[in-house]
Design goal:
11 helices, alpha+beta
Amino acid sequence: MNLYSNKQKWKIALLVLALLTVGASLFVSNQIVTRVGEREKERAQQWADAIRKKIELVRLTNNTFNSLRAKEREKMALWVEATEEAAKKSPLDEDYSNSFPLRITQNNTDIPVIAVDNDGYVSANRNLDFDTSDIRTLHPKATKRELMDHFDDSLLILAEDWKKKNPSFTVEVFDDFYITYCYDDSQIIDSLENVRDSLIDSFNRELIDNEGLVPVLLINAQTREIIGTNIPEARNAKIARSSVTSELNDTPIIIDFKNGEKNLLYHGDSPELRQLKYFPFIQFTVIGLFAFIGYLIFSTFRKAEQNQVWAGMAKETAHQLGTPLSSLMAWIQYLETQDADPMITTEMQKDVNRLEKVTDRFSKIGSGAKLDSEDVAQTVRNVMTYLKPRISDKVEITIEADDPQIVDHNASLIEWVVENIAKNAVDAMEGVGKLHVSTNSEENWVHIDIKDNGKGIPPNQIKTIFHPGFSTKKRGWGLGLSLVRRIVKEYHKGKVFVLESQLNVGTTFRISLPK
């Protein structure tokens, strides 16, 4: 009967079932993560389409600005020509009529104009969005003349800025007297530019402020210049670094504007998706931790229950043996009074003494063993002397336990341990072989070695032979070596283990007791 083998089969079956469950759960979780990742990729593609449409709208707006600026330049050229024509006409001329040029100049109600003569003085201005009252707020104590000087200086500075933006017109009004007309965009263009800029700013704010969006990085394909991103470490950079793009997907979305300009949109997994990838492992770690703690708790209770069962069985066995032992002792005494063969009563007395020792062993297991400081080598000699005539005479027994080894131990229980291992060794040799028992000491330990030349123990069974229920015998209960380990480990705080074993060569058991 091999209870341990059945227990191992159940453990393996449960482990396989648990692994299959974990694998199935991980597979389902990975499928969910994959689908969520595909959804996020679709969102990134939709976002890229939105970028394309917005930038196309900006480009269309810029084209509109260019058209408006061209028309305003034509209008400005006509206005300058009309101004020049009106300036050249004299009321004394016979064909004097400046009503048409004046109408043209008066129709200019939206284009800001500053006229500067060749001496650097402002000769006229039109459609400005500020006047001397605005200058007054900056120079409240200035005189009227000083105020006009500040105003003219401001117009000259503004005229120079307008020259850089829009080409100016220079007209010869009189001989060697020129006037340069500088102009700026009309209020209509300024309003449209503000709308365009607000559109771009809102796009950038939406991209940068939206931390929950899929991480994206929009760069120029040629210059690698960052156009927009919501990745914190890339916000203050001008050029995309490889360390940033390496954290995103390898294949970017190409945004082609059909005008020779291409942008690349890199995107990655959102923080939620990255967390979701690790969630199954975290989940199983937590579940495994709870299972491990639960196992420790139940294992502690189970061991405590086993200890109570061991103690209860030992006490009950000692109690049950007590009654027949008393009866046997009475019968021996009766036989001695009846002049029976002395050899019979002597042998019976030996068996009774043996039964008393067994009863004493069980009673000590049930109630706790008292350890005495005695020579453990003598204890080994005693038990081997008892075993010699009771095992096969084809087994050669040698004992090497001459030097006194003083150790705190219970002689009765240690004899039981040595006896159990020795009997197992004889069974392993099938009643024929050599059995060598020796004692030796180290700094803090005393060792009892029991060596046989039997069939040996397979390597995969060395760690399991001391478990309850493990047995290589068809009718064995697998409790002998388990009881050995319990006596050595729990009662004597020692160790018992297989020192060495080779198949078809033999096995050496070592019992180590602390000094």
